[in-house]
Design brief:
Helix content is about 50%, strand content about 15%. It is an alpha+beta fold. The chain folds into two domains: about 130 residues, no CATH class; about 80 residues. α1 packs across α7 and α4 runs antiparallel to α6. The protein is elongated, with a radius of gyration of 27 Å. The N and C termini lie far apart (about 65 Å).
Amino acid sequence: MKSKEKVRNPKEDWIVVENCHEPIITQELWDTVHKILNAKHRPAKAGEVQMFAGLLYCSDCGHCLTYSQKQRKDGSYHGAYSCWMYKTHGKEYCASHYITFDTIYELVLIDIQRNLFQYRKNTDKFKSILSRKYQSDSQKQAEQITLEYEQKQKRCEELDKIISRLYEDNVLGRIGDERYESMSQSYELEQVEIKKALPILKSKIDELKRQSDCADNFINVIKKYTIIDKLDSAILNELIDKIVVHHKEQAEDGRTFQQIEIYYRFVGKLGTENELSKAA
């Protein structure tokens, strides 16, 4: 008798098989959309949603930077970011990492424009530098883990044959029951451990292969733009993975400075043209 009652299947029991059908949208677009959706887009008091929401992080505690506004005498608003931990729990837990919206906007825009200019000036050279810089390490790791995966897979097949022969020897009386139980249990335990390790290794291989494609993925994103003269949420989330803001420091000459680290999607931090060439 069939029942139409719906039974909930716990998420941990789901079996997910990826890449079985031709995707409707690219993985990059999917990741970008979900990154925007998962960010906390809280409107400021003036009503607008902040374009840097979910992108700015404290260099010390790792928490997001939160946005606040103060109204000027002329009615306009002055916006700035500071560490969530500092604002919530005070200076005993973290420093402010204070930075104005105008400052972070200008720094990020200049850095994006610089990298876009380098790409447009010499596309082949820019791509070649990125490829050498970001592919070599991933490829080496992938080769090592692939070798380990193949060895374990081969051993698993060997164990199938060994266990089968043991069973046959036991049935034919070549080895006793006690000996058979001891040996088969040992081999089966080894096989169980191998079968647990195989999907983990396969996942690592797939991830490293994706990393080896980082340069191509970043090029596919940045080549969409001819010029970027202003920023918005879509541009930032398509190009930027995160921005790490350090606390202001004072130099020996009395001047203050503040370090900002911009991590681009797929490729992480990008130095100047000379720095990229040296790293490659």
